[in-house]
Amino acid sequence: MAKGQYKKIGGYLAAIGGILAVVLGILGALSLIPVSTLGPLQPPLILVLRIAVGLIILATSGVIDIDALKLERSGIVLLLLGIVLIPIGDWLGGFVTIIGAILMMI
């Protein structure tokens, strides 16, 4: 595959990871899925962080247009955002975002 195709697939995977983070955060806020604590962080704070990082990923990948949340679209930024998602309990969205970021850097 050409380099541009890897970048496009990576962008799609990063967007899917952001969507997963937002959806799982909303489902946790509605008490439809369990939310664990992370040290001193209580579930409401974890849910807010999960939704916020998911929105930042979506804005960075270009799915939504919120200028205040948009960061530079690069593989390193998305990799770091994916790594941030894993400790706050969204391992699925984090891993999908990390795989997308790695594909964007190839």
Task: Summarize the structure in words.
By secondary structure, the chain is mainly alpha-helical. It has one domain. The protein is 68% helix and 0% strand. The protein contains four helices and no strands. Helix 1 (3-29) packs antiparallel against helix 2, helix 2 runs antiparallel to helix 3 and helix 3 runs antiparallel to helix 4 (91-105). It is elongated, with a radius of gyration of 14 Å. 39% of the residues are buried. The model has no long low-confidence stretch (mean pLDDT 87).
Largest sheet: none
Strand content: under 5%
Order of H and E elements: HHHH
Low-confidence regions = none
Give the helix proportion (percent range): 55-70%
What is the number of beta strands? 0
Q: Which features would summarize this protein structure in a list?
A:
single chain; 106 residues; mainly alpha; 4 helices
What's the arrangement of secondary structure elements?
Blueprint: H1 3-29, H2 43-61, H3 75-85, H4 91-105
Helix pairs in contact: 1-2, 1-4, 2-3, 3-4
In short, what is this structure?
The chain is mainly alpha-helical and 106 residues long.
